[in-house]
UniProtKB/TrEMBL annotation:
Domain of life per record: Bacteria
Species the sequence originates in: Streptomyces nogalater
Coiled-coil residue windows: none
InterPro entries assigned to the protein according to its UniProt record, in alphabetical order: Heme-iron_electron_transfer, NarG-like_domain, NarG-like_sf, Nitrate_red_gam
Domain NarG-like: 3-221
Name of the protein in question: Respiratory nitrate reductase subunit gamma
Membrane topology per record: Multi-pass membrane protein
One Pfam family hit: Nitrate_red_gam
Keywords noted in UniProt: Cell membrane, Electron transport, Heme, Iron, Membrane, Metal-binding, Nitrate assimilation, Oxidoreductase, Transmembrane, Transmembrane helix, Transport
Transmembrane regions: 6-23, 44-69, 89-108, 128-145, 179-197
Signal peptide positions on this chain: none
Location of the protein in the cell: Cell membrane
């Protein structure tokens, strides 16, 4: 089971991610979208969407730093384990709470606005459950080990995660990891595999050509230079 969860599942999730992205790009380009429901309701969306997106960006940034910045690098800048733990605890909890609040508002909007609710699919519901599960488990794992210096995942989970990119993951490092962290990692991998098959695929989109396209110039037209308007087709008027 250890080899399956920590040696095989990460690569299965990555393979499903890449395969899904390729499939969506080749056969479902017009579906590569957020399927925005703003046309149905915008007031709540204008609040919930920024809250969720800012929260999830902070969460992702925290994970990148925690997993891929070695302990020796942070210690070089004078950040010891206790200081890092406090930053991770308070910063990570705040980012998670912001994300959960955004998801809560989005779900409330979908449930209470009839047109938006009718446009909600089973895929959307699964997406929200996975997002809430991943974020909630991460917060629970952190808060469950909030005392002292907390659980030092940078000496177990982080080296294992970095080893995945060299194709040499040390699965033994994950055997002593607290259960909440393990479940959080598994749900996170499932979420990664699910991304290209949901509206979350838009996170891989970037309007790069927009940066290099020529300017679009809009000019008003002189009415005197306009040609005569064609007669409107329709029934001919009878009588004087």
């Amino acid at each position: 089971m250890t080899v399956l969860l920590w040696g095989a599942l990460p690569y299965i999730a990555f393979a499903l991610l890449v395969a899904g992205l390729v499939w969506r790009y080749r056969y479902d380009k017009y579906g590569w979208t957020t399927r925005s429901s703003q046309v149905y309701e915008s007031r709540l969306l204008n609040i919930a969407s920024p809250v969720f997106h800012y929260g999830i960006l902070f969460v992702l940034a925290g994970h990148l730093v925690g997993l891929f910045v070695p302990v020796s690098w942070t210690e070089t800048f004078g950040v010891d384990e206790h200081a890092y733990h406090l930053l991770s605890l308070y910063g990570g909890t705040a980012a998670g709470a912001l994300t959960v609040a955004g998801i809560g508002l989005l779900v409330y909007r979908r449930r209470t606005r009839a047109p938006v609710f009718k446009a909600t699919t089973a895929n959307d519901k699964a997406m929200y459950l996975l997002l809430l599960g991943a974020i909630g488990l991460g917060m629970a794992a952190k808060l469950a080990h909030a005392g002292g210096d907390g659980y030092d995942y940078r000496r177990t989970i982080a080296p294992w995660a970095r080893g995945l990119f060299t194709l040499q993951p040390d699965t033994a490092l994950m055997t002593g990891v607290p259960v909440l962290y393990q479940v959080h990692a598994v749900v996170g991998m499932v979420l990664i595999a699910f991304v290209p098959y949901s509206r979350l695929v838009h996170m891989f989109s970037a309007p790069v050509p927009y940066l290099f396209r020529p300017y679009v110039v809009y000019r008003t037209r002189d009415p005197r230079q306009l040609g005569p308007r064609p007669e409107r087709r329709g029934w001919e008027r009878l009588g004087g």
